[in-house]
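seq:
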Amino acid sequence: MNKLRLRPLAGLTLAIGLSLSAHAQEAMIGESVESLLDYAKRRNPEYTAMQAEAEASSERITPAGALPDPKLKVELRDITRESTQNATISPSRTGSTQYTLAQDIPWFGKRDLKREIAESEADSAKGRALGAWADIAGRIKVIHSQLYFVNGSERLTREILDLMLRLEKVAQVRYAGGLAAQQDVIRAQVEQTNMRNELITLETERKQLQARLNALLARPAGAALAAPTHLRPLPAPAKLDFSMLEDRVRARNPQLFSDEARVKSAERSRELTYKNRYPDFTFGVSPIQYQSSVKEWELMVEFNIPLQQSSRRAQERESEAMLAAARARREATSNQVIAELSEALAGIDAARRAETLLTSSLLPQAELTFQAALAGYETGKVDFATLLDAQRQIRQAKQSQIKALVDARMRLAEIERLLGDDL
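struct:
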């Protein structure tokens, strides 16, 4: 009996545990950019809306190529039977009843063109949805990299603040011994104040970036995010060849894909406009009922006469202009995308070289300079200003190193946005 009572309690405990675990996991997203992208792909409302629009466009293909619904007309003749006192609407009691079943038939090829136009518009909507996701993913990657830079700068600033506290103690010892001026202590304190002020600025920037990121994730602006722990590895230089990426961009860029679909739609619309020179038909069959039996049959063919030539020529000129505009827009997009690709590749190459130079040369030199300046200040060979300059060089070198790493990832995000896919 006790076991039976404990089972519901165990199930409730398990459910609560799973719920808390899910909430904890949701709150901890942000350590890696992959967790953010996975979350955004399921929750971002803009991408969801674009997907829904693409699905709606694809559902327009079948109706576009379908025949219009047939029409049925019932005509009651001589309902009074030559006597106004005996009016009736019963088919068996009127003079005669004509039933007309008619079907509109477009000119040959028009239905196929309408279906192809709908297919092209669906492809364009699909391209816009892919482009929306590429843009959202690119912004998430950039903000994640910026957060990594802010956190790295904050960590570096705290390290320098600790260093300045130690330098202040050194300056106080030397001042107490009459080996240094009080100005050295004051300079160390002023430098600490600047560090604390910079920490406030970095904290504000981090909150702003987290609010932007939460907006892309469809979360409350103040929702908790884990601090980025690492950056994505850069692709091998062979994967960043301009010619290879140019071909991939031309083939896979969502915006180019959408523009190409618009061109195809404009071409089919032009062909359909020229086919409007030819008439559409309506075919019908009409049985005629007298009292209780059908005694006559009629066949009907109806077509429109395309007489309004000035109107049709204007529509044809419009379709030509729309096609020219679609082609020009595609060319402009292609030029812009390739230019952005070239710029991003140049930026990622520059960031790589700068990071290598900073890591292998400038940062070790700055550290040696600081150590020499510190030793010289302790022995009275250099003044405190020289020591501060050496400290600032180390800090600037480390910040530049973090910035080069982040810049490379931001350029990589731009390349992947152009590709519409990860490298």
